[in-house]
Amino acid sequence: MRRSRAWSRKDTEAIIPTSSTRAVSYTVIGAISVIGVVNITMKVPLPLKKIKIQGGTTTGHYLNFIRETLDIMDRYPEMRGSYLIMDNAPIHSSSEVNHMVENRIKDYKCVYLPPYSPELNPIEQFWAIVKHKVKRNQLMESETLTQRITEACNDVPLSRLVNLTQHSKNHFQNCLNKVPI
Q: Membrane-spanning regions, if any (predicted)?
């Protein structure tokens, strides 16, 4: 915790150099369906540097993820004609993403959700479950955060994925009927 006040001699600034630890940020991109976790990709953090946001998630990273996800979905006939539900993040709304998805032979379609509507996106509730599982116990010396996140994603039961999808579907219907959420 940092102090918000300090004292100094008259006509001098009250500046004290403090050391700070910057947390490492992991980026996880995922796709789920009622038949299970389709694809999870983790962007391993780069070593900390004193430069502005280098190594953020870009449309290129997302296009690679979408390509991998569609390749996985192509293996399952029951996924033909599926909708890929995405929020309005800039990396999702690229014309390249839409082109890649909708020009696939398997008849996939993009659905873009309105801003600030996490209740309409089942993956948001999925991430809440995964975060809880990751944070629940202290990380053991023998495991990595990447392993913990992967296990947490794979430990979400299929029945829970079905419930998350149904929950979002119910909210979607309420929105169409202009019922306040």
A: 23-42
pTM score above 0.70: yes
**Is 82 inside a domain boundary?**
yes
> Can you list the positions of beta strands (E) in 14-167?
27-33, 36-43, 83-86, 109-112
Q: Would you say 131 and 100 are in contact if contact means Cβ atoms under 8 Å apart?
A: no
Domain of residue 170, residue span: 27-45+55-176
Structurally, how many domains does the chain consist of?
1
pLDDT digits (tens, 9 = 90+) for 145-160: 889 999 999 999 999 9
Residue-averaged pLDDT of the chain = 86
Determine the 3-state secondary structure of 130 from DSSP. helix
Q: Do the strands 109-112 and 83-86 form a parallel or antiparallel pair, or are they unpaired?
A: parallel
Q: Are 156 and 129 in contact (CB under 8 A)?
A: yes
- Residue 150 is classified by DSSP as H
What is the rounded CA–CA span in Å between residue 154 and residue 159? 13
Q: Does position 49 have pLDDT exceeding 60, yes or no?
A: no
